[in-house]
């Protein structure tokens, strides 16, 4: 069937039909620390959730730029394969060019399993949305900085944009991603951009710490793991405390855990009205980080902060804005356009003046924030060794709990 397509299209189909592998693989050595994970791994390795698929289908409807006929054919074929399976329609007549092109593209997928087609569709839409959002008043492909595997970092027109790029995992932050974010912030602090933006690719802003981080146990055992994680956390949050330029969060969708707590250290937080904010620390047997134990009561008052940090209450974007955690909420349909227009204007303000103003605001309590960060990290080190925490993480990874 692939013979019906030109060579270029065949290569694309070959790429689309390759079996999907998760971006990171857990070795059996790591998994063996948690027997329950061995079962989970084989059950979920090939799964793209129905929800991901539906949200990709919806994302396609929102795409403002025409992706071109070749891309539309690929998406059509994958959609049909994912929803109906292999093509068994009669071949259209030679003169019905459009129907024939569609039939050819679908037939070329042969017996590709529905689940794989779904996953490939999700990945293709995600790559399209990512390039569409980077062309919406934002840096073009040429400005993409090399060397990052979990991020897309671009710098153009006075704006450095750090985009979390694990959309199929809701941008959960892996150990590698923590390291790359720190490197990207360090570089952005020194580059010639006026402002720095953190955002997420796909339907989520970020689902917080990747809970699989806890399955990678070093030779020194869980104590060493907890100690290393506390150091990583302290250094990571420290980069946000010390960041010298205006730092803006463009919260494109739901935010969980550390991606929420850190917002207290940003200068501006713009949110889509689709975004939600929650910190399920107690549910996970954990405790607050990102200086939120200090910043949240300061921003929203102790009663509202307690509802979020102790009881894990989820806020809508409008509620988070009313509490002062979010600067402004925009309708999802115009979010990217409105936010990037605003940011482009801000990026033209004199950079030194903005930097100096930010430092005046931050320097008053920088030392205090570092002390709070150290204390939160060391309390968490103890929490990660508790039964409450271990059980909660095992439950999530074995699919008993969603937070
Ligand atoms: C070392 C520094 C430590 C810093 C301390 C930080 C603490 C925190 O951040 S605590 C918060 C941790 N995050 C969570 O507890 C969220 C867990 N995730 C969920 O509850 C859900 O996945 C969801 C509500 C975020 C999304 O639900 P849903 O829309 O139903 O989508 P799926 O669950 O099917 O997710 C798709 C895919 O992504 C994986 N995933 C999502 N979030 C995480 C995560 N935080 N860690 C690991 N994996 C995550 C999820 O497992 C699915 O994967 P596949 O099954 O392989 O498709």
UniProtKB/TrEMBL annotation:
Signal peptide: none annotated. Its main location: mitochondrion. Residues 49-134 form the ACB domain. One of its GO terms (molecular function) is delta(3)-delta(2)-enoyl-CoA isomerase activity. Its EC number is 5.3.3.8. Pfam families: ACBP (PF00887), ECH_1 (PF00378). This is Enoyl-CoA delta isomerase 2. It comes from Trichechus manatus latirostris.
